[in-house]
Amino acid sequence: MALQNPSAPPHASSRVPDGTTHSGVIHTNTRHTSRYTVVGNHLAQHRELSLLAIGLAVHIQSLPAGARIGIKVLADRFPEGEARIAAALRELEAHGYLKRSRERLPSGRVVSRTVSCNQPGSSHATPCAPPRARRTASTPPTPRPPRRAAPPPPPLPTAPLPRTEPAPSPEAAELLKGLRRDEPRLLLAEGDVHRLAPLVAAWLDRGADPDAVSRTLTADLPEPLRHPASLLAYRLAALLPPPIPVQARPDPLQNCETCDRAFRGPAPGHCPDCRPDLQEAA
Question: Which residue from 32, 123, 227, 273 lies 20 to 30 Å from 163 (Cα-Cα)?
Fold first, then answer.
């Protein structure tokens, strides 16, 4: 009979604490009783959606009704940029998890309406449409009074925009294009240059030096700088210098028709000492 070595280590076991013997992910689940969102595997394991689109759909489904989910709002919330977030929203819209439309309110204002669908193609509700309110059989529906159109909301306080000409000056456009030489973050698109050039022209028309305009636009930029064109538009409108006051010119010299003395007046005539109306009043 072979001798056993009592100091030899036992054979390593591949069994995990929950009793399984295979490798891979191990779930440790705790039942949620509050602050949770139910997400279907059709979304969490979608084979055609990107990981960013799946995560964005889970985030949107966890938000309360009425929460803002615009591209700029999501870009401020997450580290991804606006371009990647916009692409992920298009993915969700293409696969039925999101529906975006624009509607005109009775006041005339156009707003964006976004509907999130947690299960596209469900037979219980129209895909990406809000569920209809249920009516109980015991309570008859009460007629609703006619809805009055809501008054338009007051305009947000903004800096007054100067009156601009439709055709911007070449000097203003060149000033905007040259901002990136001093500050690379102020690289503007061609459309932004055409939109901002009239605002720069208003500064130049009021006697502002081009170098002073460039220093005002490039000084103390925020970090990070997400929307350079919007920042420049605000600064150009809010910091617009006042126009140079026009000094009144004195009346030209005239020769009195009576005493031939020189006096200042808007037109030829009599000096104050020879004016008949002033003599009668004296």
Answer: 227
